[in-house]
């Protein structure tokens, strides 16, 4: 092989470098999941509060708030709990989606609350609208991803399925019991935990903890058998102080026309009216 001049070596290196620019470990834009932060870390815009015994939108005793960029549930202004279960709803109905939160339990339970509610919270999904709830209603009809904290000793699974006013099919059987436990580990203390739920209308739901699947089920429905195909996402206030440092949404319903500029290959439900060209 003839000896290359410095100029020839430069041209060769440039060509090789240019060729490498076409190789990337990043998936194409249509493959990348576009998660959205639905809690902005600053305020509770885009969310609606409903606390049992109080009118829609009233944040009784500052139960919900924002502190150090986190969405918090606290009971600093409560003398006793008095059954004032609360929920904060994201203002958009959804049918096919993923919701992922990072949460941790902190502090002491509100005085007068039941023992079972200790370090107990939830992600409610496919929930009825907050506007449709009665004044004294403690829970929306919905499906719930139950979030539980450990007591430092005993096993206590998190991301269980809870069914307020609802049922689901688990392992091929319609279950009418109120709680179906997941296979998750137990998370003691005030550590941060990642929990996710993936929902395909009423056909499938999967709970994940720290990225690992812990339970799946289908056939989500109201007590009267009405299919739960869509609804609202809400976070709970059930007497246990808790912090959420992240609340993210991935919509799985969108334009499925591959010629559209906003097509995403991970969509599982079509929304033709959303297509952009």
Model description:
By secondary structure, the protein is mostly beta strands. The protein has one domain (36-271): Jelly Rolls (Sandwich), CATH 2.60.120.560. 5% of the residues lie in helices and 37% in strands. The protein has 1 helix and 19 strands. The chain has one helix at residues 6-20, and strands at residues 36-37, 47-51, 64-67, 70-73, 86-90, 96-105, 120-127, 143-148, 160-162, 166-170, 173-175, 179-180, 193-200, 204-209, 212-222, 232-237, 242-251, 253-254, 269-270. Strands 1, 3, 4, 6, 10, 11, 13, 14, 15 and 17 form a 10-stranded antiparallel beta sheet that branches. Strand 14 (204-209) and strand 15 form a beta hairpin. Residues 14-23 have low confidence and may be disordered.
Topology (SSEs and partners):
Layout: H1 6-20, E1 36-37, E2 47-51, E3 64-67, E4 70-73, E5 86-90, E6 96-105, E7 120-127, E8 143-148, E9 160-162, E10 166-170, E11 173-175, E12 179-180, E13 193-200, E14 204-209, E15 212-222, E16 232-237, E17 242-251, E18 253-254, E19 269-270
Task: Summarize the model shown.
The chain has 1 helix and 19 strands. It has one helix at 6-20, and strands spanning 36-37, 47-51, 64-67, 70-73, 86-90, 96-105, 120-127, 143-148, 160-162, 166-170, 173-175, 179-180, 193-200, 204-209, 212-222, 232-237, 242-251, 253-254, 269-270.
Give short descriptive properties of this protein:
19 strands; mainly beta; ten-stranded antiparallel sheet; Jelly Rolls; single chain; 277 residues
């Amino acid at each position: 092989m003839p000896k290359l001049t410095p100029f020839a070596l430069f041209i060769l290196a440039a060509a090789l470098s240019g060729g490498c620019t076409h190789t990337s470990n990043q998936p194409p834009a249509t493959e990348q999941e576009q998660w959205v932060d639905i809690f902005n870390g600053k305020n509770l815009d885009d969310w609606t509060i409903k606390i049992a015994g109080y009118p829609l939108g009233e944040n009784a005793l500052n139960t919900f708030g924002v502190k150090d960029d986190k969405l918090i549930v606290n009971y600093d202004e409560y003398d006793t709990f008095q059954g004032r279960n609360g929920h904060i709803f994201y203002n958009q109905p959804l049918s096919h989606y993923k919701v992922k939160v990072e949460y941790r339990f902190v502090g002491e339970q509100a005085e007068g609350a039941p023992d079972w509610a200790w370090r107990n919270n939830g992600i409610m999904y496919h929930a009825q609208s907050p506007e449709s709830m009665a004044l004294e209603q403690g829970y929306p009809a919905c499906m719930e991803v139950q979030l539980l904290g450990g007591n430092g000793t005993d096993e206590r699974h998190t991301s269980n399925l809870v069914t307020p006013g609802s049922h689901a099919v688990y392992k091929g059987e319609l279950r009418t019991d109120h709680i179906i436990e997941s296979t998750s580990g137990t998370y003691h203390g005030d550590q941060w935990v990642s929990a996710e739920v993936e929902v395909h209308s009423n056909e499938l739901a999967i709970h994940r903890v720290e990225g690992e699947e812990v339970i799946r089920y289908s056939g989500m429905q109201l007590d009267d058998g009405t299919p739960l195909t869509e609804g609202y996402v809400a976070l709970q206030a059930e007497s246990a102080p808790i912090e959420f440092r992240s609340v993210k949404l991935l919509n799985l319903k969108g334009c499925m026309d591959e010629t559209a500029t906003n097509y995403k290959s991970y969509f599982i439900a079509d929304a033709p009216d959303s297509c952009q060209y």
